[in-house]
Amino acid sequence: MARKGPRSVLIIEARFYEDIADELARGAIAELDSHQMAYERLAVPGSLEIALALSLALANGFVGRAGRHRGCIALGCVIRGETTHYDIVARESAAGLHQLAVQHAVPIGFGILTCDSREQAWERASVDGRNKGGDAARACLTLMQLEQHFSSASRR
Length: 156
Fold this sequence. Notes:
Elements: E1 8-14, H1 18-34, E2 38-44, H2 48-59, E3 71-79, H3 85-104, E4 108-115, H4 118-125, H5 132-154
Parallel strand pairs: 1-2, 1-3, 3-4
Helix pairs in contact: 1-5, 2-3
């Protein structure tokens, strides 16, 4: 169940590959739970929609320094197909999230897999494999700590 609180992150997950999304979320949530970090999950259709969902959350004060959630974890999967659609989705989802992170100084853990096959995606998503959901959560938590460090240092 989602938990919310002053130390909280928003998990935005692309549901296009539901089994992979669930495994990425499982890894991220386990990492958040191990740090007693509250979270809320939000589902979007695909990886390309994650940046827009975060942009809407930022614009409405849902995420950010004064928002309900201080950071965000972006989870999704893009698997190479026979067209260039893969390249567009992979590039633009990463660029959109990077732009939001820098523009709004919001900690984002990037957990969008870009893979050649479903098997490769599963290996990277699996908590018993490479656990990229857990990695994305750790990245977000690290950036939140860094922000806290700079915020504390600037008040001295």
